[in-house]
Amino acid sequence: MGGADIILNYFSRSSFITIFVLSWLSIYFITSFTILFSRMSGLGRWQKNEQSALESLLMGAKTLPNNSSLHKCTNTKITKEKLNVCMSLAEKNSTSGIVWLNIIASTSPFIGLFGTVVSILETFSGLGNGSNASLGVIAPAISEALVATGAGIFVAIPAYTFSLLLKRKSYELMGTLDRQCDILMSLKDQIGVTKI
After folding, report:
1. How far apart are CA 163 and CA 172, in angstroms?
2. d(Cα 88, Cα 178) in Å, to the nearest integer?
3. What b/e sequence results for 41-78 when a residue is b if at least 16 CB atoms lie within 10 Å of its CB, and e otherwise?
């Protein structure tokens, strides 16, 4: 019996709830990888731009490049309050997607457990209707029911890992922006109201 036959056989014996739970977990799994790849590439480009802007400020430039997140905050007089607002907006943008990864990581095991409990209840319900109640009948049914719990854990682990990776990338980016703010505030006294 091939792998495809085993999977088809499993789904033919599964209840609607089990199939629903496994479909839900599949969507979660795909969503986790989609968030990771889209956010990692976006944060990588953003970090590269901000690092380049920071280096130009360190080399003595008096203006920020247009592609810097803080550029719009330096069009008029630089104030700590304006920089804080820009930093808050940047932090919000840099951490988008992390909440969804945390939701997926925390709910996946419970969704899988729900599928397992429903499958076990159906198994025992079927046994109570006069079926053969031997260990040879119960063990495979419970084993198949535990697939949903395993799938929930399988989905939660990468989602949690991806969440931590994106938090780290966001932290690095915010550190770069924070250093830019420090330099801009020190330049403010030298430049005054001049456009930076």
Report:
1. 14
2. 11
3. eebeebbebbeebbebbeeeeebbeeebbbeebbeeeb
Lowest mean pLDDT, pick from 54-63, 80-89, 162-171? 54-63
The per-residue pLDDT of the chain, averaged, comes to 85
Task: Scan for tokens 């005054």, then name that residue.
Answer: 192
Q: Phi/psi of residue 147, each to 5°?
A: -60, -40
Instruction: Determine what percent of the chain is predicted with pLDDT higher than 90.
Output: 47
Q: pLDDT tier at 132 (50, 70, 90 boundaries)?
A: low
Q: State how far the Cα of 149 lies from the Cα of 130, in Å rounded to an integer.
A: 28
**The dihedral formed by the CA atoms of 15, 16, 19 and 22, expressed in degrees to the nearest 10:** -100
Q: Between residues 3 and 101, which one has the greater pLDDT?
A: 101
How far is the C-alpha of 54 from the C-alpha of 149, rounded, in Å? 47
Q: Is the pTM of this model over 0.70?
A: yes
HSE of 131, CA atoms in CB hemisphere, 13 A:
15
User: Which residue blocks in the chain are alpha helix, DSSP H?
Assistant: 3-13, 16-58, 80-94, 98-128, 135-191
d(CA 66, CA 63): 9
Say what the pLDDT of residue 94 is.
93
Of residues 173 and 133, which shows the higher confidence score? Answer: 173
Residues 50, 126: Cα–Cα separation, whole Å? 62
